[in-house]
Structure formats: structure tokens, C-alpha cells
Amino acid sequence: MESWGSRVREDPTSLVGEPASSLHELLDEVDEAFARSGSPLFVEIPSDRPVTLIGDSHGDWPAVSAALRHARHGPVPGRFVGLGDYVDRATWSEPDPAALPNGSIWNAAYLLAWNAAAPGEVVLLRGNHEATRQIPVPNPTLLRELGRAYPPEEASVLWERLTRALERLPLAARTANGVFLAHGGIPPADRRDPRQWRADDRELLEALLWSDPEFEHPPSRVVGPPYGASELEEFLQEFGCGFMIKGHAPWHSGRAIYGGRLLTLHTSDLFSRFGEGGVYLAELPALPRISSLGEVTLRAWEHGAWKPRAMAMSTMPPAFPTSAEASGGTSSGPVRTIQ
User: Fold this and answer.
1) 311 within 8 A of 263, measured Cβ to Cβ
2) Are 287 and 295 in contact (CB under 8 A)?
3) What pTM value is reported for the model?
4) What radius of gyration do the chain's Cα atoms show?
5) 110 pLDDT exceeds 90?
6) Long-range contacts: 295-303, Cβ < 8 Å, 24+?
7) pLDDT at position 30 over 50
8) What is the rounded (10 degree) CA torsion for 232, 233, 237, 239?
9) How many CA atoms does the CB half-sphere of 232 hold within 13 Å?
10) What kind and span of H or E run contains 325?
11) CATH code for residues 4-337
């Protein structure tokens, strides 16, 4: 009989209407894959093939599955990297949209199924919404979504298992051609060596998963130190990278800031009105070295296809939304190199 992992990889909604045992079987496969990988905190990604990146998806499995199909459509499938925030509806204006009922469950199951089957091809980084038991996160909805999909006694058990799996995802990555990838920010100055990272280091978690650039850091943020252009530049030079791509704060989605050193992506229709407006992915070419964001292809989901979009550059602070609009297990090994 075909495994639940195989079924979910073909269709993110295969679990809809199925008993809780089906999701448990999928999570058994995921747990076995994590046991094999050792759950590193940092990943080195080769540049022998193109890499497709997605930003925050927050349950938007249609956009995510379209992005993954796009990444793997060529004769040699490209690698695929998620920058975190696969679950929850972290906005006050649309806290739990009816258009994607229980989307957090199907999105997380889909991505974890792919990561378990092809860990060197599909890399999932952790966002702050994958760390809700470790750092403050506003308006988590995963448990509520599970409670709608399954009986109450099953929902709490599944929430524990799914949350524990998401907590084992890496915190950051670096591509061989010099791109730093994380959900929010850069590590503190005294934690620049990933081999020394610890899974219980809250300051590190907040910096990587919650921080914003200085002029993208709204008053509503209460966690994570903001970082400036000079701090980012110093870190990138020390870390051997030309620029950084992140998710998290949507106000510059699709737009490069800090002199082209930082690009923000969001891959969810919940945030399509922010930044340059759109649902985005980015493609890194298979080059020995990428010197600037000008060599990165930005694509927006338009009329059922990923269309190239010119990358905007910005040096001006954003006009922050209102506070209502803005709210929007542990890992065991520090570093893994994908073969």
C-alpha cells in the first residue's frame, strides 16, 4: 500500500477527511527521517544546481506546492528551500481565512513529507512560527486548525507531534555560492560560528527567527534585536556571503534593501498586499559565486504561472501598518552539509 508520505507529496490535501491515524503514520516517517539526519541547526547547501527559495507561506499550500513543482520541473530538479513560517495565520486582519481551511496542517504535512523523502533536495528552515514553545509568537492557530480537523483528544496529541517535528528544523543555511538564508535576522556577534550553536540558546533563536532590519522593525515587535546595514555587511563578509535572503517582516516583500544586500520573500496570498505586492519565490543560479542580487531571478505567481518580476530596490524606511495589521523537540546537531 502506498505510504501516506507518498500520497501527501502528490496532493497536500490527501489527509483531508482521513482519520488521525493517517497523519500519525506520516509523522512516523518524518520522525524516522529526523533520526537519520541528526537534526542539524545549520545547513550547507551545494550550488551544483539552481535553488528555489520560498518565504513565509502560513498555510498557503497552493502557492507552496506550485513553487515546489516549479523547482523540480526541469530535467535535473533544482533544490528547494523554505525560509520558515509554514503554519499559523499571523495577521489580525485575516487571522484564519476561510479560503484555506486548516491550511497549516496540509502545508506542514506536505513540506515535511518532502523533506523526509528528499532531505538533500527539499530543505526547510525554521521560522518563529515553528518555535512557538521557545519564543513568543502572536496568534498561533495550528492547534485550533487541528481541533477542527480531528476529535479534541486527537488534536492535542497531533499538535504535540507536529510541533515537535517543526522544532527540529535548522535555524539557517548558507549556499556554496555565497548566500546566507534565515527567516529573520543574523546571529549575534559572539555566535558567528554555527558549530557552537545550541538548540536552547534563546538569544540565538530570537536573532535568527524574530529580528528585523532596523528600518523594518515596527514598534509592535517585542522580540529580537534589529540589525543595521553596517552590521549586516560585517556579518556577510565574516561569513563569506554576498547577500542574505529572508522572510518574516512582509513590508519589503519582493524588494531589496541595504544596498542590495537583503531580499525579503513572502509566498502567501495573506501578504500579497505588502511590499511590492505579490506572492514570490526566488531562484539562485548554479554558479560558483553569486556576487549580487542582480543574478537572482525573482518570480511572482500570476495567472497560474511563476512570472519573472523586476526586483525593486529601496533605501527609504517603510510606512508601517497599524499595530492590528502588523501582528500578524529540539535540534541535536549544529551543522550539516548536503551531499
Assistant:
1) yes
2) yes
3) 0.92
4) 18
5) yes
6) 296/245, 296/263, 298/254, 298/263, 299/70, 300/254, 301/63, 301/66, 301/67, 302/278
7) yes
8) 10
9) 28
10) helix 323-326
11) 3.60.21.10
